[in-house]
Specification:
The strands form two sheets. The chain has a seven-stranded parallel beta sheet, sandwiched between helices. About 45% of the residues lie in helices and about 15% in strands. By secondary structure, the protein is α/β, with parallel strands linked by helices.
Amino acid sequence: MNLPADQKVALVTGASRGIGRSVSQHLAEKGYKVYGASRSPEALESEACPENLCMIRMDVTGEESVREAVALILSEAGRIDLLVNNAGISVAGPMEETPIKMARAQFETNYFGTLRVIQAVLPHMRARGQGIICNIGSVAGKIAVPFQGHYSASKFAIEGLTEALAIELEPFGIRAILIEPADVMTKIWHDRAHCQKEESPYSRALSRFLRVKETEMGKNATPPETVAREIVAAIESKGRRLRFGVAKGSGMLILARKILPDSLMQWAVKKNYRQ
């Protein structure tokens, strides 16, 4: 494939829906050659995709799958200028009642999946002396959410990973940035793995939480198309800024976490979720 020298090549994980799909489409419309990676790339085969968007198969939980997908892009396009780590899943339920197996699955996708793709792409970026790695975190990686403790923990981990990565990669001309979305209208909440034992002592509190969460992730959430534009603007921004809050309310929530003491912050979280 002979791409113009000035056409940037992007790899976006979790690209078959939600934020990943919208970011892939927006990048393609802006002239990037985009490889949208998904476990089920055929999900978009019946839909009209921008000419510059190519869907490929990648399971971020599998070493071989990641290696093969990255090798395919390099063989076709010759380079990867931008990596957007968006693939993620959600586990919800009381910490006490969530099986360790499910907690591991949460980290295998959200944290180790992100790391796996970074490790596959970085040698190429480093050899070229340029590139951008954009990790999709969450406001829940700054403010822990009850009954989504494992999800929050995985996003807290992405915070630490990206902070360290940005420092390590700066000498090589590679930029790492972290996106911290507030509530976005995607299917990740509705497709969550849900844990709740029969006659659970947490049932009443969990029911109150779920009622609030359904509203937050439904009519009150920001459309992914809006968030995609904010993410692409962050990617194309100049300077060395590390964190970017996106979606309605993200800036206020991140500022509150920064200035409020833990006791007041936890009071606000409990009040919000009717705990």
